Amino acid sequence: MRAIENPQLDHTLIALADPTRRAILRRLAEGEARVTDLAAPFAISLNSVSKHIKLLERAELVERRREGREHILRFRPEPLTAAQAWIESQQTYWTGRLRALDALLTAEGGKEREDE
């Protein structure tokens, strides 16, 4: 299987890799929020939360708008659809490969799989 470059998918998976960023996305899934409100539940600085938000923006998982001095964020689920499609393709590929390996081992007299 040849690696295909997909920077957007890379950004999405990197963004999802951190529990703080996932918590921010869970909160934004409920509706828009100000950056300061998003930062409140975390025991980290506002600057650190802003860095997490920048990674979410780079992945296009959140969109920012300004209202005066306030920065309002909203969740954008579209990049998750692409990530889900990639995960499903990997699952299909590896399930097929493992079934082929199992058939080969069985044909060569290998140990048969036990029913689960």
Automatic annotation (TrEMBL):
Superkingdom as given in the UniProt entry: Bacteria
Residue ranges occupied by any HTH arsR-type domain in the UniProt entry: 1-95
PROSITE patterns, A to Z: HTH_ARSR_2 (PS50987)
Gene3D superfamilies: Winged helix-like DNA-binding domain superfamily/Winged helix DNA-binding domain (1.10.10.10)
SMART domains to which the protein is assigned, alphabetical: HTH_ARSR
Any matching Pfam family: HTH_20
InterPro entries: ArsR-like_HTH, HTH_ArsR_DNA-bd_dom, WH-like_DNA-bd_sf, WH_DNA-bd_sf
Protein name stated in the entry: Transcriptional regulator
Organism: Devosia nitrariae
